[in-house]
Specification:
mainly alpha; elongated; 75% helix
Length: 104
Amino acid sequence: MNTQGIDQLLREMNQTAAKAAGDAPANPAGAADFAGLLKASLDQVNAAQQEAGQLQRAFDAADPNVNLQDVMVSLQKANLSFQTMVQVRNRLVTAYQEIMNMQV
């Protein structure tokens, strides 16, 4: 399981929390912007979906190197990552709507 994206997300969240508390400089060196982080997450979800689709097609074609367990695990991982991304999108939309409804 690739945890690099999760680790990067946690670092970004910690840096954001530190900035909000005033403990860190405003633009730390090497920090990824939000759009880049979101795009990387979307790319990871897409890669998981593509991999699951390839394994499923290989299993359907009776490839002897692909077993049902690998296909099912891959499909569940892809589904879980997609559902997580949908929840992130829902939270972002809700936050945007709240910001737009604020009185200035």
